Structures are given as C-alpha cells and as structure tokens.
UniProtKB/TrEMBL annotation:
Belongs to the protein-tyrosine phosphatase family. Residues 145-205 form the Tyrosine specific protein phosphatases domain. Gene3D superfamilies: Protein tyrosine phosphatase superfamily. This is Tyrosine-protein phosphatase. SUPFAM superfamilies: (Phosphotyrosine protein) phosphatases II (SSF52799). PROSITE patterns: TYR_PHOSPHATASE_1 (PS00383), TYR_PHOSPHATASE_2 (PS50056).
Amino acid sequence: MNKLKFSSQYEGENDVRDVSLEGAINFRDLGGYPTGDGRKVKWGQFFRSAALSDLTENDILHLQKLGIKRICDLRRTNETKAQPNPVIPGIDNVHLPIIPENKDKEQVKQIGELSLHGKQINLGEPGEMLLRLNRVIAHQTDAYTQFLKMIFEEEHVPLVFHCVAGKDRTGVCSSVILMTLGVPEEIVLEDFTYTNKYLDQLRQKVFTKKFIEKTKDVDPKAIDALLEARPDYLKAFLKEITDHYGSFDTYLYENLGISKNDRKDLQSRYLL
C-alpha cells in the first residue's frame, strides 16, 4: 500500500484527490498528475467514481457544488437498469457501456454478476478473468472515441465517469484521458492502483447475503482478484494496445480519431 502515497503527493494545500460522499466510494479527482513535459492536469475537471446509484441528497448537493455537468455511466444496460443513477438537476446522464453487451456467462464479467450466476461463471485462475477483460475492452475503440469527444465539449465538463467499483472500466477510461494529456504510464498505473485504498469499503458493499450465498463454492482467491486493482490488469489493456495498434499514440490518432492538433487542444485546455 506504500504506492498509494505516490498519487497523493501531487496534491497541493487546496487540492483534494479523494471526495468524501455518503452514498458512493472511490470518488476522486484526476487533477495534479504531472505530464512528461512538466505540466500538470488541472484540478476539478475530471472525476472518477464507483457506482452513483445510492447518492444521498447531500451527495447531490456536493456534486452540484463541484460544478459537475455530466455523468458518464460506463456500465452495461443490465447494470444500469438494476441500479439506475439519480436524476440531478443541471447534470445530464450519458450511458456509454465499455464491456460488450452479451449474455454469455463464459464471456468477461464483473464482480457484481457473481451474485447472479455464482460458480456458473468460468473465472479461471485468480486474476485471469480481469486480464482477459482488459484485453477485450482495449478494442472498444468507438466507445473511447465517444468518451474523448465529451471532453471537447466545455458545456459537459467537469465530468464524472463511473462503473460499479470504479476500478476496471473506470480505470481504463482514466488511463485514456491521462495518457492523451501526456501523463506517463507509470503514474497512470499508480492512479489505477489507488483504488485499493477503498478495498475494505468495496468489500462491504459487495459482500451481501445474496453474494455470499451465490459464491460459497467460488475460490476466495478468485474473488479477491476481482476486487483488487492489480497493476497487471491495466498493463494488459495497455499491452493489447501496443501489440495490436503499435503504440498508444498510433491508437489515439489512427483508431480513436483524435488528431495531433486535437490532442494539443485538449492539453492546452486541461493542463497547467
């Protein structure tokens, strides 16, 4: 857990990475991270989070005070229907699923779905399923193009994006933003593993009676692997990009449709 301090060292006296909410965990600001050319990501522009379906009235007021203009929901349709986001005046909701919509239990899944299917899901070796997931979602280029286009629209920023745990889908989208802005990969990985600070709270949310009953025959190490934000998961995503597209820059310019001038525009807008 020592690495958690690495992300926090970029906070100034008036800057706070972790945003404390009553009904959501792992809500944090992506500001303060340095780029390779010595600039820093502006605070208060991009926020990442776990599920927002349980936001309280106080939480909603907090989001409005933060100036949030848009919530981008990265979950699949079945997840959004089961736990919809609240309607918040002044904030629009966009649904942008990152995992391909499918019903095959053998395909990539998330921790919450174990409470529905339990041991019917083929988890494989501990961590294998999320390595597979992160390789698969590297090819969701249309989704990342739409995601990046959102941040060109000033009327929709500040932006918060989230999935269920705020870990994998949210983590890869964070990496796409940060690397587009020029934040080095090693710092992007630190931001990814920062989620482990919230591991105990995530366990409390996930380990319902139904979940415990459905997963009684599932290897506990496999469940731990699903809950944790392990560096190898994001590395699998980034390696898939390198292996299939050549480099992140090539991926950005040729597959996500973001030109070099577009990138410079985003950097001038969101870096200090």
